[in-house]
Backbone:
């Protein structure tokens, strides 16, 4: 069972994603900010991170850079309410993007695709 780390500062989003992804058969852990995020990833070893771009105290794109520098192969799905982030060069380090919505079909699809490509690339 794949473990997914959801990083979002909005409680209702974390709850919604957790419920939905748990139902889809994933193990879900959450973080409400980027605080000690790399440490958390190190300890929990998630298979994928769902990362909010705009959080109160953290810029998700900067966190993405940190994650990429330390955990090169860890798939990251960026979530955002706006698509203007695509103009930011830092965003190219993400595997997938999802515009936030209460319909999580797209998020589920992107997670499945990211996990599948990770499996195929890891050579296990």
Residues:
């Amino acid at each position: 069972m794949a473990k997914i780390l959801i990083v979002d500062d909005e409680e209702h989003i974390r709850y919604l994603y957790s419920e939905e992804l748990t139902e889809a058969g994933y193990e879900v852990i959450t973080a409400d900010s980027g605080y000690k995020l790399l440490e958390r990833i190190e300890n929990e070893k998630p298979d994928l991170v769902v990362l909010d771009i705009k959080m109160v105290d953290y810029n998700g794109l900067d966190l993405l850079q940190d994650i990429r520098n330390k955990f090169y192969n860890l798939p990251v799905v960026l979530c955002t309410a706006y698509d203007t982030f695509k103009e930011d060069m830092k965003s190219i380090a993400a595997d997938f993007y999802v515009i936030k919505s209460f319909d999580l079909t797209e998020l589920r699809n992107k997670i499945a695709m990211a996990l599948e490509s990770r499996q195929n690339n890891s050579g296990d």
In short: DSSP finds four helices and five strands in the chain.
